[in-house]
Amino acid sequence: MRSSPRSGRRRLPALALLAAAVLALPQAAAAAPATAQADTLGAQAALSGRYFGAAVAAGRLGDSTYAGIVDREFSSVTAENEMKWDTLEPSRGSFNFGPGDRIADRALARGQKVRGHTLVWHSQLPGWVNSTRDANTLRTVMNNHITTVMNHYRGKIHSWDVVNEAFADGGSGGLRGSVFRDVLGDGFLEEAFRTARQADPSAKLCYNDYNIENWTDAKTQGVYRMVRDFKARGVPIDCVGLQSHFGTGGPPASFQTTISSFAALGVDVQLTELDIEGASQAAYSSAVRACMNVARCTGITVWGVRDSDSWRTGQNPLLFDNGGNKKPAYHSVMSVLGGA
Ligand code: G3I
């Protein structure tokens, strides 16, 4: 991290201008004065109290270009697949923490934070869970998974996606069908969050989903109603993860409204899986600006490092090209974060 080089003679007027600008800005943006500059995404985001992370795949960490970017640029990592149920508990009661530990321990040793992704999700779920149709058994299985995994990583994870993608696409605004919903009913969500709080009180507990970025969508409204209900009844929830997988146009016009509306319920908001088809500078700028403009939007994670690492094959949605070079969108993001 370095300060902007400025002569003493220019400093006074610059500070006066800055003071005026700060008064006119919302709280979060005010925490990142335009003169503050850092050399990396993580360091730059830290100047406004935010993290900037990436999804990391254990199998790629042997690639020195990949690992070099991860270590240099990001202040938080999310295991792209290694903390999902099918990897962590492939058969009942038999836990495999190796790949997840590799990512978490490596990050923590370098001073990076770790996001936990994800405890309860209908996908990447082993067959033995899907075929558990007795409610008491499934409740025990779900709670044991949450408790065992969170105990293992206790104190190491800043935020856990406790439940992922539980809401249905389309106009219903309700939950999607899944073994959890079908066998346990809608109450599985509340039970998962209550169990999670007991297992690791130091971790922020998030609900994470995609296509909840456009404020008026039924799915967004359904999640909003759930969070409002949880807060009203004292069900523990600390954050909402907006995955933010966008097409070429980037975020919808209402994106900041969505972020600020969730934040107004008393939860943090995190952009948890940001990637944008084509990675235009305007689209990335607009996504990051929306977060910067809301004090409780506390961090951003991009879903991969280089385009060649992305799950969206051929769409070039990330901040680094296949050779590991910074793309134009990288510089736009730095600029919106308040950097060079
Ligand atoms: O590990 C096996 C490998 O052994 C096998 O040879 C290979 C053959 O297909 O598959 C490998 O597993 C793949 C795994 O990624 C690891 O590379 C799976 O097939 C593949 O389905 C899996 O895709 C992941 C996807 O979630 C699964 O739903 C993506 O990497 C991952 O980026 C993606 O991430 C999700 C978030 O968790 C939730 N939100 C949406 C996001 C994008 O889909």
Automatic annotation (TrEMBL):
Every GH10 domain range: 41-336
Keyword Transcription: no
Enzymatic reactions: Endohydrolysis of (1->4)-beta-D-xylosidic linkages in xylans
Signal sequence extent: 1-31
InterPro entries: GH (IPR017853), GH10 (IPR044846), GH10_dom (IPR001000), TAT_signal (IPR006311)
UniProt record similarity statement: Belongs to the glycosyl hydrolase 10 (cellulase F) family.
Name this protein carries in UniProt: Beta-xylanase
Organism whose genome encodes this protein: Streptomyces zingiberis
